[in-house]
Amino acid sequence: DVAHRTHVDATAESKASAARTNAHWKEGKGTRGGSRWRERRKQHVDRRMWMALRGAARRHGFGKGRKGIATAHALRRGCMVEFLKGDRKWDLVVLDKPDGKKNWFGTDRNGIIFSIRPQQIAFTVPGDGYNVEDIGKVLSQSTQNRDPELLRVAWEILQEEGKDASVEDIEKMMFSTSSPATKYATHRILSEDVVYFKRKIKKGNAVFEPRKPGQVHKQLEEVEMAKRRAEEEKKRMKAFEAAMKEAILLPREQKPKPEEWRDKDLHGRLEALESMALNVGPAAGPGEERELAEDTLQRMGYEMSNDGAHLLLADIGLWGAYEIPELRRKETFGLGIKSFKEHIQKAAEELIVSTPPDVDQSRRMDLTNMKVLTIDDESTTEIDDGLGFEDLGNGRSRVWVHIADPTRWVHMDTVLEQEARRRSSTLYLPTGSIPMFPRVLSDGPLSLRAGQKCCAFSIGVVVAEDGSIESYDMVPSFISPRYRLTYDDADELLSEQSAMEPELTAIAQVAESRRAYRTRNGAVDITLPETNVKVKNGFREDAEIEVFPLYIDSPSRKLVAELMILAGEVTALAGTEAGIALPYRGQPTPDLPPMEDLLMLPEGPCREIAKRSRMTRSVQSYNGAIRHASLGLAGYCQVSSPIRRYGDMLVHYQMKAYLRGTNAPFNEEELAQVMDYVGSAARESQLLQREVDSFWIAEFFRRQPRDRAYKALLLRWLREDSMLASVLVEEFGIETAVRMKNGHPLGEHISVGVSEANPRAGRLFFEEL
Questions:
Q1: Which of 483, 531, 558, 562 could tie 511 with a disulfide, CB 3.0–4.6 Å?
Q2: Which domain holds residue 744?
Q3: Digit-coded pLDDT (tens) for 228-284
Q4: Interhelix angle for 555-578 vs 646-659, to 10°?
Q5: Does residue 163 lie in a domain region?
Q6: Gap between the Cα atoms of 204 and 264, Å rounded
Q7: Which residue stretches of 553-604 are H helix?
Q8: Predicted TM-score (pTM) of this structure
């Protein structure tokens, strides 16, 4: 913006740096004053630019080394001074009273009071006894007298004489009479001049040296070039505004694609808008990028806020109709998770074409003749566990938990292993999953696909009649899953005790004995619903959102969970016996409410909540199994999901190395360091998943009629004296806090309504009706 042009010397010896400085300021990016200079330096401006700016500032009397203007005239009440405001604009104020030892309070013509440092003062208007009303008069009169052409005449005279001049000298050449208004007009003309004079400080006072004719000619050329650039910028901005306005009016499917916006002129404005909308990056706080974003919002008629930036980006099609800030924030200013970098995707594809050597080839047990079933949700694409049953005769049997073997494909210290470590886990979002490995692997050779010969890590367990472990085997294997069942399919087969699947029924019996065994050993079973969210066409304005409760209490879900817990116990036992460092998980014994207290609570969620509130935090060990009280086990180690949990894959690396008679990749200390990193990444993923879920749940309720009532169950009082209670909106499995209007006994159903649903803020609040 030419209006922001400031004093920059373009002397021969600093032509290059001055030209850059001029361009920088002409675009409205320049700042003056000591604190502003330090701010720019903190922002890591290119050092050469910094030096050019600092040099120019010092030549013009700004920043460090500036003297005379504020100190040549004693500051006192009633002085009128020009000072630099925080927003880079100059303003006139009348000084009222001191603010400490050096600063002064001053009032501008709008009645706004500023605390002003002497270093901020650029000019003192001659005279004293001014009041606020005089500011307007001085500004008006100085504007009328401000004719830049007069400066050229003064330059011609002084250039011929070859001597420096003060403001007063130049004023006499420009005006026939002298007044505070003409002096201020002269100061303003000289302040805005970049052509005729160079400002210097001599003996504490500002003087002006006339430039050589050749220098003036060059400066005039630069000014003309700046004007042309400004005109071109204005035209580009006009076209850009027109493109945005047109896009806003188009249906979403016809809006320009994001990549089209990236190719447009002035796309830097869009980057500033994204930074502002996400509250991360250069436009998150005060500065040039923020001003650029706010200028764009103002031009387009949008609110100058983070939400306004979000809305504009969505309206023009650069962002989707439902853009989740935290997910976009990770993509834009963190490490991308929605897609894999090209070299990682390429490594995955090459792995399939050129299969790596299988170091366990000779030790793999051939179990391809065993009937293996996989049971998963219908939407699951990463199949990382299957179940098998082996009749040993004489009433004895062995159950098998076959686990996908990604370490057969993904070796340590490869780009794929490092990427899996960075991601830590597959991320399950309402719109779909974001895998830990490229899908060409996770949904392909890493998965236990029906009808395919697959590499697996198999754990066979003979379970005693009382549910304890009698013996176990742990081997790398080949398996060939017969077919894949959904949980609904498996529930149906179990309810019918189908003769077609006797193995499934037998496995269910083993699972039941294991469940009883763990219960006798103190396992704590808490049955509460989880809120599940599914979204179709999440990028469209008519996205379909489904919110429903998910209870982990169906027969098939209990069966699978029990067998995975069994595999985890065996792994902990085997690792401890072998002295292998593993991420052993444990949990101290909880101090549960006495049974008589639990029986006084209504059966169902109220009791479950009471138990949950007394549970202890899980702990981790790396040198041996530790008791896991809530599972009722002497030891436990997660092992059954290596395609979607990096920690499980680490267990595979460690155990398989032991089984082949080689050293494990990590000792206790090294494993602890890796798991610290993985645990931190996993917590970030869980937080992101919760925020995305919250977004879609809030959007679901935002769409509902405002007067819709929902049935909720009073679970417990959080602060009964404040009437704050925890309730369960059973239709959706949502547990939330509600400020009650009336007293109710626990377990009573009440009616609640939505008081606020703000998807972008992730806020959803209910109130009693």
A1: 562
A2: 704-768
A3: 988 888 888 888 899 999 999 998 889 988 888 876 667 788 889 989 998 888 888
A4: 50
A5: no
A6: 50
A7: 555-578, 595-599
A8: 0.71
